[in-house]
Every structure is written in structure tokens, then in C-alpha cells.
Amino acid sequence: MGKCFVFVNQKGGVGKTTSCINIGAYIALAGKKVLLVDFDSQGNMSSGVGVSKDKPTIYELIAGLTSPQEAVKHTPVAGLDAISASIDLSGAAIELVEQDNREFFLKKALAPFRDVYDYILIDCPPSLGLLTLNGLAAADSVLVPMQCEYFALEGITLLLKSVSNVQKSINPELVIGGIFFTMYDSRTRLAQDVVMQVKSYFKDVVFNTIIPRNVRLSEAPSRGLPICSYDPECAGAKSYAKLAEEVMKRG
């Protein structure tokens, strides 16, 4: 059975979608079959790998309006597939909030893929709402991207508390797969202090690889390409290649 990771951070702009795309791409380059699941109504992950937001999307899949096979779209990277998202997903939480087992509709939708793909990576919205709750219920492991700034320290405490609640009541097999730093600027003392504090407290939970602030990482999504296809020699690409190796070793 394939492994399922969910990328979660209630704060926006921390590199969550960028990380989901590029870790998935490098795992695919390592010869694994990878499925990216865009579970954010903004659909940024879909744009970032050059797949259409036209129907069918993840909304049609969870609503039972399409088959698993029809929902999958191919990306420019061999072995890397995706299920896209559109603004329609924003209505899913409203429509399903009154239903029984409302936390499990994503888990049910992704079940047919668990024996097809080696890795399933879920990109959740920047919130701790029902969609993210579904991501946590569907996954085996949580990956937490963290920007090197003061407020990130406060936010991660709230996030891990939410994960703990999910472990107790919804998904007891869920584990913290790891925390990793993004947009790191070694010139600032604050970034260095945040890294030191988090590593001191969380120890082995923190990945060794740190993703630097890198303009090429920001440019790649506009071309609909992962960084491995856009500029494989840049610092951001080399960092994500190393981080993907760590994810596979831990997974």
C-alpha cells in the first residue's frame, strides 16, 4: 500500500504548495509513482504542475460525480500525476458539513489510489477547517513547512495541538512525519534563531535539509513546472532534491 502524506500549515505563504509539488516531483524522478492531490480551492498546486482546473477535479471525485481514473491528470514529469482543484471545492465543506462521517470523504475518495501509487501527497488550504481535517484523516503522516519567522513559532504549537486532537479522535495512526524550514535567509539573525529553537525543542522531528529563499522557486509555478524541470541546477532545486530523499528515507 502506498504512503500518504499531507502538507499542513494554517499560515499562508510558507511554501506549502511549492514543497508539495517539488518533493513529489523529486520522488517521481527517483522512480516512484506519485499522485499529487490539490485540496485547496485556490488550485495553486494544479497551476504549479501545469494541469487543467477543468472538470473533473477533486470536487467531482469526492462528490461521486466522476471515477478515480477520470480524475487523474498527467504532469510534465514522468511518474507524477495529479488531481486538480478549482473554486468548486470551496462549496464542498458547506455541502458535506451536515453529512455523517464528514471528516472522511477525502479518505474514501483516495482509497482506490493507495495500491496504485507509491506516494500520495495532499496539499491542504492554509487553515485548520474541514478540508484540512479531511486531509489529516486521510493521511499516514503530516509534513509541516515552516517559515523562519517569529509568528511561525506560535502557529506551530496550535497546529500540533490540532494534529494531536485528530490522533485521539479521528486517525490514531497519524504521525508527525517531520518539520522543515522554507524561505531561509542565512543573513538574518532571526532565521538562525528560529531554526535553533525549533531544532532544540523538536529534535529529530526536524528535517536536516533547509530550503533557502530562492527566486527560481518563485518563478517555476508561472511556467507550470516543478523546479526540477524549470532550473534543476539552482539552489532551491538541489535543496528540494535532498529533502525528497529525507522524506523517502523516513517514509
UniProtKB/TrEMBL annotation:
Gene3D superfamilies, sorted: P-loop containing nucleotide triphosphate hydrolases
Name of a matching Pfam family: AAA_31
Lineage, top ranks: Bacteria, Pseudomonadati, Spirochaetota, Spirochaetia, Spirochaetales
Domain AAA: 3-176
Protein's name in the database: Chromosome partitioning protein
Highest taxon of the lineage: Bacteria
